[in-house]
Amino acid sequence: MARLLIPLPFAAASASSLHLAVSRLPLAAVSAARRECLFGGRVVGGVVRAPARLSKRGLCAGAEAGDSAVTVEAMEWVKKDRRRLLHVVYRVGDLDKTIKFYTECLGMKLLRKRDIPEERYTNAFLGYGPEDSHFVVELTYNYGVESYNIGTGFGHFGIAVEDVAKTVELIKAKGGTVTREPGPVKGGKSVIAFIEDPDGYKFELIERGPTPEPLCQKSLIHFVILQRHLAWNFFASETILSTSIRLR
């Protein structure tokens, strides 16, 4: 699945699901102090080290309190932090031609289109997902203007695709312009290519697999389950000589 390579915060369409909210947070968002409280031990270099002796009541209370604290922190973060990149606006000379190129060659979806005749311009919004959770492009067509000078300040947009060579072949078949054939980036292994849209705006195609987000969600869910499992084991056995669990 193609996607614009713009860093975005995690979307939270519904705050009613605890596991969804927590699992969509990056691990870094959970402070070391929270993790210590969560596991009733210390976190050193990605390794959880449990104390030698823990009381039944103290451990379970600590684990529960930690879980609750992380939950509150996650929910508050989702509610309060609304910052994210929304869209980029640029002008095109042939709106329909550009929309066709973006949808057929780059795999974007036309999200909405609006015409403002009194102001003599038309907008089209395209992207790889809904505007409320994805970065999108806003194309502007001004009546009667067929071309623009892009200038020297603009570089390029970056798009992740699963198969750069296949995408380039499709672009060529549609009459698009390829300015750099698929191949490894200089000094690296990533496969890239450069193309231009009908107005000359440059796009870098970067070969990447599907987004790892679902895997992250699964790992964090297992992280919570692991915490509960540890709490039960500590409760069942009052004395633990040494425990070292490496987080994977």
From TrEMBL:
Q: Matching InterPro entries, A to Z?
A: Glyas_Bleomycin-R_OHBP_Dase (IPR029068), Glyas_Fos-R_dOase_dom (IPR004360), Glyoxalase_1 (IPR004361), Glyoxalase_1_CS (IPR018146), VOC_core (IPR037523)
Q: Which cofactors are reported in the record for this sequence?
A: Zn(2+)
Under the heading CDD domains, the entry gives: GlxI_Ni
Q: Which residues bind Zn(2+)?
A: E138, H156, E204
Q: In which pathway does it act?
A: Secondary metabolite metabolism; methylglyoxal degradation; (R)-lactate from methylglyoxal: step 1/2
Task: Extract the Pfam families matched here.
Answer: Glyoxalase
Signal peptide range in chain numbering: 1-15
For this chain's record, the cofactor binding note is: Binds 1 zinc ion per subunit. In the homodimer, two zinc ions are bound between subunits.
One of the GO BP terms on file: methylglyoxal catabolic process to D-lactate via S-lactoyl-glutathione
- GO terms assigned for molecular function: lactoylglutathione lyase activity; metal ion binding
What Gene3D superfamilies does the database record attribute to this sequence? 2,3-Dihydroxybiphenyl 1,2-Dioxygenase, domain 1
Concerning PROSITE patterns, the annotation shows: GLYOXALASE_I_1, GLYOXALASE_I_2, VOC
PANTHER family found in the cross-reference section? LACTOYLGLUTATHIONE LYASE
Which family does the similarity line name? Belongs to the glyoxalase I family.
Name the job this protein performs: Catalyzes the conversion of hemimercaptal, formed from methylglyoxal and glutathione, to S-lactoylglutathione.
Q: What is the protein's given name? A: Lactoylglutathione lyase
**What organism is this sequence from?**
Zea mays (Maize)
Q: What is the lineage of its organism?
A: Eukaryota, Viridiplantae, Streptophyta, Embryophyta, Tracheophyta
Which gene name belongs to this protein? LOC100191237
